[in-house]
Structure to design on (233 residues):
């Protein structure tokens, strides 16, 4: 049978694998030109995730513990769109982040900032028929990292989006407006196009803000086209 493969990423629209200012990319970047393998039936038919595994509160990172997490509550929402501005419905969106003190709940994170027993830092949701998604969480802290002298990561959220299979997974980061660390951050700046970098910055949204509860931020994710959101290489 004829197999129709997934459309490849357009060259020049995403960060390069090698960005010397981002020290880890020097070892991680491939040293030779990549060989594109054909998409066979196995790639285009699976494996897939189970939509029924996403619970009604999985998009609220402030729930599921013995008490509320420490930090500023925020609501982040937006739409997942294709290159023509059409909504992408029924798409799995995952979010993970550090806590308000700038520490991840992960064995590899040995930053001496405190862990929050009431914050795990991971959530997921499914876009609705209009491509909309929303998360309730806390604003992450900045944290040091050993890339260079006095290096600090800006406040950010990690996003992952799944298409019909793992072959179509895309990962990006969302930043907050006005963060003074963004011009100094080699990960943010590995996206060399200034306009594209702006598409990784959310915007404050009073319509998403919930009175006496949490400030709201809007972050639309465009999967393809001229206005695509830059994804991690």
């Amino acid at each position: 049978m004829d197999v129709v493969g997934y459309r490849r990423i357009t060259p020049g629209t995403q960060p390069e694998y090698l960005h010397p200012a981002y020290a880890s990319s020097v070892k991680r970047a491939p040293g030779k030109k990549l060989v594109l393998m054909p998409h066979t039936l196995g790639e285009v038919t699976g494996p897939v995730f189970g939509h029924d595994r996403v619970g009604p509160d999985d998009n609220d990172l402030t729930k599921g513990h013995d008490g509320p997490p420490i930090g500023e509550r925020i609501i982040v929402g937006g739409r997942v769109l294709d290159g023509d501005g059409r909504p992408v419905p029924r798409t799995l969106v995952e979010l993970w982040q550090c806590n308000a003190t700038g520490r991840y709940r992960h064995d590899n994170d040995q930053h001496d900032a405190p862990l929050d027993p009431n914050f795990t830092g991971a959530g997921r949701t499914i876009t609705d028929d209009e491509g909309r998604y929303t998360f309730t969480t806390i604003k992450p802290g900045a944290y040091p990292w050993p890339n260079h002298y006095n290096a600090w990561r800006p406040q950010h959220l990690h996003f992952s989006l799944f298409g019909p299979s793992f072959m179509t997974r895309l990962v990006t980061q969302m930043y907050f407006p006005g963060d003074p660390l963004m011009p100094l951050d080699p990960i943010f700046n590995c996206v060399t196009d200034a306009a594209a970098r702006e598409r990784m910055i959310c915007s404050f949204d009073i319509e998403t803000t919930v009175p006496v509860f949490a400030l709201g931020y809007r972050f639309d994710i465009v999967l393809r086209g001229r206005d695509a959101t830059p994804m991690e290489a």
Q: What stands out?
A: The chain has a mean pLDDT of 90. The longest strand covers residues 73-81. The helical segments are 23-28, 41-45, 194-198.
